[in-house]
Amino acid sequence: MPIENRVSRPAVLCVLDGWGHREETADNAVALADTPVWDRLWSGEPTAFLNASEEEVGLPKGQMGNSEVGHMNLGAGRVVRQDLVMIDHAIGEGEFDRNPALAGLVAALRTSGGWCHLMGLVSPGGVHAHQDHILALAAALSRQGIPVRLHAFTDGRDVPPNSAPGQMAHLLDGIRSLPDVEVATVTGRYWVMDRDRRWDRVARAYAAMALGQGERRVADPLQAIAQSHAESVFDEFIAPMVVNDYAGMADGDAIVMANFRSDRARELLTALLAPEFDGFDRGALPRFAAAVGMVEYSSDLNPLMTSIFPPKTLTKVLGEVVSEAGLKQLRIAETEKYPHVTFFFNGGEERVYPGEDRILVPSPKVATYDLQPEMSAAEVTDRVVEALDSGVYDLVVINYANPDMVGHTGILEAAITAVQTVDSCLGRLEAAVRRQGGVMLVTADHGNCELMKDPANDGPHTAHTLDKVPLVLVNGPPGARLDSGRLADVAPTLLDLMGLPQPSEMTGSTLLDRNALRKAAE
């Protein structure tokens, strides 16, 4: 139960996306940036560290956290077993061979005589997909006599930027013994996994996959990668290429999406499946016999495809508890992280709770965010300060995308600018919280920009990290101290600060040191 007489309004959760903690200062954008606001808060307010990766957030040992996982744990108030773990277990148990969604697809293809187009991110990164899941799906379909054409997305973002040759070799080794399983296209994730309605990118990937019209035609997948690398175009940005005589998708074919993270799979699937679509001219849309996804991707796509793993509902997440208490809440972020403070923070649910408002600030339309590391942080801050000054909200959840999105570019100077931009915005946010007599928790969902050079090869480090993330309590109760914990402890801590009881479904713990608070109250 919350300690009596300690109710703060509004309570603000500020997520500095990708802002991890690392003691070493070399190649550390957080440490190298000029951050007067952060430095003052870190030295003068209660602080702690949170685990944001591996088993502490429901991932396998050695697996870095990510924004989807981080926000689910932050909002759920419990460790949420992640899709990566669930799918690995299902493969180990042979469940693909008896899965109803896959069985339905196989039956449809046996009737139509078409190909199965299996697509996904060929990467061991485990953030959006895993290459071994693609191999397991290919093997399961091949065992049923289904011809498979693979559409391989190269990573370079959640893994080193020039590591695709090894990943593609792993894929080719895995399918070598599978009859009628071939790689049809190779495309960098930049083109095929957009989430900001940059349809010009998706159109180029669609042309290769659906129409067989790539930027070039190559003899084999490794050649596609080698040619791009020779032109200093690395994995994330490899232009869509067609392999051998692949001519596109046809009526009676089927598609399987292997990615298990929804946000960067939706646009491609919408282009392939939506009857009404105005993003670009698709030409004649194939009449697919079936469409299956590893998971559900959106309420709009659900009527158009089935899922191998339907979602498991999380109840009594933070947004639901606050809503049931009759309180008002706001979620705000720019486009790149808007799904995270809404869909993922609400436990993977699309619905908006009563009393929940949302503000989406458009992300800038640039090719890569090192070109504009400030992103839309200033406008996000303008809107959230206005909302706080209105006095309407009891809970505000805000995300600053810069440290993560610019960290993914691997460009240290740009990441430093991103951190400094967020620090300036944090000062304005802090002032607004204090004006209202509110309280704020500042933390991150995972690490990223604190490591900008890969220690293994001295190249750019573009992936997330296993580092802990900081936690700061701003304008907290007198005498407050924080215990260290994990992301799942943030929601219980916010409920404690708001004077709301923690539901039994939340198995995290408040990080407020009760002994310190009692002593301060004496």
TrEMBL record:
On whether Acyltransferase is a keyword of this UniProt record, the answer is no
The record's comment on cofactor binding reads: Binds 2 manganese ions per subunit.
Residue positions of the active site: 67
Q: What is its EC number?
A: 5.4.2.12
Family to which the UniProt record says this protein belongs: Belongs to the BPG-independent phosphoglycerate mutase family.
Quaternary assembly:
Monomer.
By what name is this protein known?
A: 2,3-bisphosphoglycerate-independent phosphoglycerate mutase
Species in which this protein is naturally found: Azospirillum doebereinerae
Question: What does the organism's lineage look like at the top?
Answer: Bacteria, Pseudomonadati, Pseudomonadota, Alphaproteobacteria, Rhodospirillales
